[in-house]
Amino acid sequence: MVIKLYTIALGFLCITFSSKAQPDPPADSVIATKHTVAINNVNIPYTATIGTQPIWDEDGKAIATINFTFYERSDIKNKSNRPLVISFNGGPGSASLWMEIGYTGPRILTLDDEGYPVQPYGEMKDNPHSILDVADIVYVNPVNTGYSRILDKKTDKNVFFGVNADIKYLAAWINTFVTRNNRWQSPKYLIGESYGTTRVSGLALELQESQWMYLNGVVLVSPTDLGLKREGPVDVALRLPYFAATAWYHKALPADLQQRDLNDLLPEVEAFTIKELLPAITRGGNLEQDSKTAIARNMARYAGLTEKTILQNNFNISTWFFWKELLRDKGLTIGRLDSRYLGKDKQDAGEKPDYNAELTSWLHSFTPAINYYIRNELNYKTDVKYNVFGSVFPWDQKDNNTGENLQQAMAQNPYLHVMVQSGYYDGACDYFNAKYNLWQMDPAGKFQNRMSFKGYRTGHMIYMRKPDLKEANDDLRTFIKNTLVEKGVPAKY
């Protein structure tokens, strides 16, 4: 038996795992089951359809198959006004289980109120906050994630594994899905998390230009940089608000700052970042010593670090160093994707943590849950391995213009709105960089009335905490309702 080693990424985190030969899934198959869930105290009947749908080459040959789960409210006869949400996770080699059984789906993983795993692993429960009351949802697993696989082993992997290749084949797949399910009239939404935000930002324009499919909304959960450049001083400065939020959570700030509410503190830190820190970093060695000392003193106060540490690093505190340094004196590290999580390293010295405490926690709760749920509740029986993470490398990163693509899609489509959802304690795709995306996508300020930002007191997986699960779903529900267009309203400026 041949075992191969692969390296894949969640956002920018590399994970090495082994894989062995597995049977191929069927190219085209579905299994449907009937269920009911109480959402906001209203019983919602729905059909859950799980299966596979092919990707064809130019000759009509099935070269790959995409695994999906589709939740459709079953007491709605006329689907023409019924919103359809198409949901992706990131990686780019991650399956969509995180959003499906963690966030918007009708059944979710049982966790404690802060999002930590509890035993027995894999227990599921109804999600009383799911958006299924207002929209049908399909969760899509790109090639090599979930049960999705390349079927023709001679197919060039470049057809799938790259920023623009990924967008192109998924747009064609969405066209087929919408056609098969008779949903062309439905208002349509894309939602993506982490690298999924890169994916859906590109899909917004690709669907318009290649499939002639126009959207009402795009939701970016914990967005990446979307190909928008932020090098040098900008890259360094934009980290500070995240540092401040994390230090506040761990009670590492000076007493006068610590006693303030986070939502009161962060605007002050953001203003300092833009108006003082960024210009100071830009000036570099030309900055007067008195000014350098004053900037370092304020930056240290907001970041929970010492002034000496700030100056030793010339204001350039890397996130890796911050995760190691903030609680070094307590013998603890903090998590990358969610800095509420704590880890313990072999030694306190060093420049970065030994491991990602938060991802370890999530994997040993989500993995048993999705495997049990699919087999026992959705009745989908297969020997194909469910890839929580799958090999999608080498991934072609060239020509990532997805942020610009999303802006162009908005320009061409007056109906299209964008909402960003970010966790204040996310150190991989931090909330202030997410705001920066919105500013740079719309430098002239022409689309601000169609862009919105929502922040939560959590990390990358904004829905892990019980209060944020409710709030984030409520924000999604409101976004969908507010972006539906009354009959007869023209799409024009």
From TrEMBL:
Q: Which InterPro entries match?
A: AB_hydrolase_fold, Peptidase_S10
A family per Pfam: Peptidase_S10
Signal peptide location in the record? 1-21
The GO terms describing molecular function are:
serine-type carboxypeptidase activity
Keywords attached to this entry? Carboxypeptidase, Hydrolase, Protease, Signal
What Gene3D superfamilies does this protein's entry cite? Answer: alpha/beta hydrolase (3.40.50.1820)
Please provide the Gene Ontology terms (biological process) for this protein.
Answer: proteolysis
List the SUPFAM superfamilies hit by this protein, alphabetically: alpha/beta-Hydrolases
Give coiled-coil spans as residue ranges: none
Q: What is this protein called?
A: Carboxypeptidase C (Cathepsin A)
List the source organism: Olivibacter domesticus (Pseudosphingobacterium domesticum)
